[in-house]
Structures are given as structure tokens and as C-alpha cells.
Amino acid sequence: MPVISTILSTGSYLPERIVTNADLEKIVDTTDEWIHQRSGIRERHFAAENETTSDMALKAAQKALESANISAESLDGIIVATTTPDQTFPSVATKVQAALGVPICVAFDVQAVCTGFVYALSVADNFIKAGQLKRVLVIGAEKMSSILNWEDRTTCVLFGDGAGAMILEAKEGKSGSERTGIFSTHLYADGKLRDLLYTDGGPATTGQSGHIVMQGREVFKYAVTFMAGAVNDALAANNVSAQEIDWLVPHQANIRIIEATAKKLDMPIERVILTVEKHGNTSAASIPLAFDEGVRSGRIKRGNLVLMEAMGGGITWGSALARF
User: Fold this and answer.
1) Burial of 37 (0-12, 13-18, 19+ CB in 10 A)
2) Cα–Cα distance between 77 and 100 in angstroms, integer?
3) Complete domains list, the chain, with CATH
4) pLDDT digits (tens, 9 = 90+) for 95-151
5) 195-226: pLDDT as tens digits
6) Fewer Cβ within 10 Å of end Cβ, the chain: N or C?
7) 36 an active-site residue?
């Protein structure tokens, strides 16, 4: 039998500080109505000043380990998707490794912005299928509040902080209706569109991390098309219809993009995990946060077929189909 990647457990963490749209009205020229109408966001979580991306990643990882009832020492791989690392180097993954007390293993970060978790999941899945790793901790963690431009009211109101984790484990695969784990992942990028969403800085240019710059209307247009395409590719690759999907777990950037994607799939919004209203856009943390929310709320159950999809700066986009 082939080796497959099964989802052993999930975990998540949100910082204590909640920032509502009403709070932002006091510091930005905006209104709750304007923000909610355009994005669906009511509130988001911001990390404390001394709280780092690795701090949040660690807490999400600990919850995933607790849910799986396994020790950190049993991990042989840690992959963190983030665009807001604590430092240029070392990686967030190695910091998490040290904090958890994981012995020598594979540990590195992946940077694909909002698509980062799907990219990291794909990398972990392929390590497992190649027989190189057996139990991999995959994390999406972001401190987006650290790269916001508070003079740009169109972007600073959209983002939040947090972390989500998923543990993949190698098992012998089954076929047909008993098939479980990660079915397939589909990754894409088009660097010609990189100027639609970027930061205006970096180590090799300004020496600073920079702030988010986004052409919102153009991003919206491509997001609906690209994410629907990635979803259809995942369905076609596995000979699965949209009606067979139990849950869609999309990147939580904008409620209108999510609704448009669901409509293209003819999928009722009741079968979509939505966290954008309370989390905002947490970039690479978005999908694992939403997935864990679905699991802990009792909606995503064992045996459910789940489709994940995202688009982010780069422009990058992708999808993953899995049976939980």
C-alpha cells in the first residue's frame, strides 16, 4: 500500500487583545460599517508588543500535540508558514523546535504569504509520501500587525494576528471510499502580478520589513478566479464533485471573495467555515485557524471531506483536498 499523510490533529492560538472596528474608528479615518461592508470583518486579534510570531506558533503547536496526545519528541519535521518571522534568521521553525524540546529534525520556514499554509502542507505531504518523514508539525503563524501602515486606511483595518497548527502522520493508504488523509495539493504562482500585493521594504532593499501595499480591486478580481480554478483542479484531480465536499475552508481575507468562490462551486455558505468576522485576515495562519475552529466547534468531523484554498502575495494561490 502507498504511504499517505493523515491529519492527526489540529490546534490554534489567538492573542488576548481584541481590536474591534469601533476601536479602529478612534485612530483611523474609517467606520465599522465601511469595514464590515467591504470585508465582513468586525474584529481581529493583535499580539502584545513583546509577543512574537514564534510565541504564537508555539502555543498553537502545543494545542495540536495535546489534541493528538503525543509527545513533541515524536516529531521528525516542523514546517512553519509565515511572512512575519521574529528575525530574518533563524527560522521560526527552529525556535519552535527548541521551545518544544524536539530532537534533531527537519525544521524550516516557508514564505508564500496568505497561501503559505497550503504550500507548507504540500511540502510536508510530499516529505511523507517520499518516505523521508513520518510525523510533521505544520504551522501557519503571523504577526501582521507589525507590518501595517496606519496611514493607509484601506489595508490597516483588514489584518490580524494568530497561529494555527496541524500534525500530519504517515500511514498506509487505502483506496476508494475508505481513502483518508491528504488526497492532493495544487500550488501556483505568477510573479508578473507581484506588484498587486507586497511590502515596501525588505532586508536587501530598505533594511526594514516594510508595510503592506495592496491594489484591492485587482486582488479581488484575481482572487475569485484563481481560487475557484485551484478548487476545480483539486476536484478534477480526484474525480470528486463539489457536492461531495463536506466543508470548504478558505483563506479568510474577505467575505465577498469567499461568497463568490462558494457561488462558483454552487456550494451553500452553510458548508463554508467562516472566521473572517472575528479574526480578520491572518495570512498564513488563516486556514489552520479556521480548520481548528471547525474541528473544535464540532462541525468538521472525522471522515469529512475538506477542501482548503487560498491566494496571497506573489501572486501565489493553491488548494488542498483532504479527508479528516
Assistant:
1) exposed
2) 12
3) 3-172 (3.40.47.10), 179-323 (3.40.47.10)
4) 999 999 999 999 999 999 999 999 999 999 999 999 999 999 999 999 999 999 999
5) 999 999 999 999 999 999 999 889 998 998 99
6) N
7) no
